[in-house]
Specification:
By secondary structure, this protein is mainly β. About 0% of the residues lie in helices and about 60% in strands. The protein is flat and about 45 Å long.
Length: about 80
């Protein structure tokens, strides 16, 4: 009988020194996975995108200081 490995996703929130949210997303086996967001100290979103097995993938969005889209970068999957 094959043993199946159970994958457990853990939500992670990291904070600035003042206690405001710096980053949030999911970890699987100690690697970022799925959708992640980073925030400036004033709470405005700075960057967002997806990880797959710890690597950036798909479209990543960078936001200006007012939270408006500044640029979108398409990350290529590697190895």
């Amino acid at each position: 009988m094959d043993l199946m490995k159970k994958i457990v996703a853990t939500k992670l929130v990291k904070y600035h020194k003042d206690g405001s949210i710096w980053a949030k997303g999911e970890m699987i086996e100690e690697q970022p996975n799925g959708y992640w967001e980073w925030f400036r100290i004033d709470g405005i979103i700075m960057r967002s995108g997806y990880f797959e097995n710890g690597k950036q993938t798909g479209e990543w969005t960078t936001y200006n200081k007012k939270g408006k889209v500044y640029k979108v970068t398409n990350m290529n999957k590697k190895g």
